Amino acid sequence: MNTTVSITTQGQGLYEITSQVEAFVEECGVSDGLCTVFIQHTSASVIIQENADPSAKRDLEQWLNRLVKENDPHFTHTAEGPDDMPSHIKAALTATSIAIPIVQGALALGTWQGIYVWEHRRSSHRRNVVVHVGE
Fold first, then answer.
1. What is the dihedral of CA 46, 133, 52, 43, to 10 degrees?
2. Per-residue pLDDT of the chain (135 residues; tens, 9 = 90+)
3. Angle value at C-alpha 49, between 45 and 38, nearest 5 degrees
4. Does residue 51 belong to any structural domain of this protein?
5. Are 18 and 130 in contact (CB under 8 A)?
6. Gap between the Cα atoms of 91 and 69, Å rounded
7. Number of structural domains found in the chain
8. Which DSSP category does 114 fall into?
9. Which of 36, 45, 70, 134 is geometrically suited to a Cys-Cys bond with 118, CB 3.0 to 4.6 A?
């Protein structure tokens, strides 16, 4: 079973989609299986990360921005702006898909884990995330 979760981002940052994915898993009625979450973009990611303390998200965002800086003179892919090539690198360094076990009808996430779309571009974008549930 599949669905697409669409989210409009407001620029760089982590956007939690855990509740949308959990709702679909519940709707599917699968007791034990696997949930795959896949983002259909090359300048954004999906990750599992802490959802309790917002400082963890800020630290991750700041660290990745320090690691992959805009306006690197070695970048040749610059037609879409100074954040475009860095966003592709950030997506390559993180993940475009994740798999989460389903145990007794629920995602087997840890207490402080959430599922996030990580927007790497500075402007607003509409991001599509395909969620697949299988037994």
1. 10
2. 999 999 999 999 999 999 999 999 999 999 999 999 999 999 999 999 999 999 999 999 999 999 999 999 999 999 999 999 999 999 999 999 999 999 999 999 999 999 999 999 999 999 999 999 999
3. 35
4. yes
5. no
6. 14
7. 1
8. E
9. 45
| This prediction's pTM | 0.95
Instruction: Evaluate whether residue 13 is within a structural domain.
Output: yes
Query: What is the rounded distance in angstroms from the CA atom of residue 55 to the CA atom of residue 103?
Result: 30
Tokens 């989210």 locate to 7
Residue 122 Cα to chain centre, angstroms = 15
CB neighbours (10 Å) of residue 45? 25
Is residue 40 included in any domain, yes or no? no
CATH code of 118's domain: 2.60.120.460
Range of the domain at 102: 2-31+47-134
Nearest to 70 by CA among 90, 50, 54, 96: 90
